[in-house]
Amino acid sequence: MSVLENWNQWKDFLGDRLNQAKTEGMNQQVISDVAFQVGDYLAKQVDPKNEQERILADLWSVASEEEQRAIANVMVKLVQNNGSNS
């Protein structure tokens, strides 16, 4: 099963990557930029695998770039306490 197929596994995966980025000294602006780039890539290249991803993809598709950046930042907040290292 792909990490994208299960919402909780996806959040844990993102939480692990976020914790790793912070440990390696990545600042919040860079994290926000990367989150936006990942969100944009997923929206354009990956079919949603569950209800939550479908909702995010639908929101992303109608959002302005500023709103997409807000969505990406909210996802960072959502997963910041997830992952196996938290």
Short description:
This is DUF3243 domain-containing protein. 72% of the residues lie in helices and 0% in strands.
Structural class: mainly alpha
Number of strands: 0
Q: What order do the helices and strands follow?
A: HHHH
- Rg, alpha carbons: 12 Å
Number of domains: 1
- What is the CATH homology-level superfamily? Protein of unknown function DUF3243
pLDDT < 50 runs, ≥5 residues = none
Put simply, the count of helices is 4
The name CATH uses for the topology is Cytochrome Bc1 Complex, Chain D, domain 2
Describe the structure in your own words.
This is DUF3243 domain-containing protein. Pfam families: DUF3243. InterPro entries: DUF3243 (IPR021637), Uncharacterised_YmfJ (IPR024702), YmfJ/YflH_sf (IPR038292). This protein has one domain: Protein of unknown function DUF3243 (Cytochrome Bc1 Complex, Chain D, domain 2). Helices cover 72% and strands 0% of the residues. The chain contains four helices and no strands. Helix 2 (28-45) packs across helix 3 and helix 2 crosses helix 4 (65-79).
What labels describe this entry?
Cytochrome Bc1 Complex, Chain D, domain 2, 86 residues, YmfJ/YflH_sf, 4 helices, mainly alpha, Uncharacterised_YmfJ
Secondary structure elements and their pairing?
Elements: H1 7-23, H2 28-45, H3 51-62, H4 65-79
